[in-house]
Amino acid sequence: MSSYLVTGASRGLGFDFIRQLAQNPTNTVIGLVRDKAAAEKKVLEEGLSNVHIVEA
Q1: Distance between terminal CA atoms of the chain?
Q2: Cα separation of 25 and 22, whole Å?
Q3: InterPro entries given for it (predicted)?
Q4: CA pair distance 33, 41, nearest whole angstrom
Q5: Of 15, 20, 38, 51, which residue is most buried, by most CB within 10 angstroms?
Q6: With a cut of 50, which residues of the chain have pLDDT below it?
Q7: Interatomic CA distance for residues 36 and 56, integer angstroms
Q8: How many CB atoms lie within 10 A of CB 1?
């Protein structure tokens, strides 16, 4: 089981990295964002259950 932290995860390359890393259900993916609500909405829409969003 691996854990990953992705900065700038709310859009663009950062969100694409999250999407790719989350394909493996044993991975834990943490996305660092400025707008938590918007990022969590995208994660829920994509059905990425192993992704956790942190606002910084």
Answers
A1: 25
A2: 6
A3: NAD(P)-bd_dom_sf, SDR_enzymes
A4: 12
A5: 51
A6: none
A7: 9
A8: 8
Q: From the CB of residue 43, how many other CB atoms can be counted at a distance below 10 Å?
A: 24
In the structure encoding, which two tokens stand for residue 12, read together?
Answer: 């663009």
Per-residue model confidence (pLDDT) at position 10: 94
Q: pTM score, two decimals? A: 0.91
**Where do the structural domains in the chain lie, given as residue ranges?**
3-55
Task: Return all residues near 11 (Cβ < 8 A) that are at least 6 apart.
Answer: none
Contacts of 38 (CB under 8 A, 6+ apart): 10
Query: Which residues neighbour 13 within 8 Å (Cβ) at sequence distance 6 or greater?
Result: none
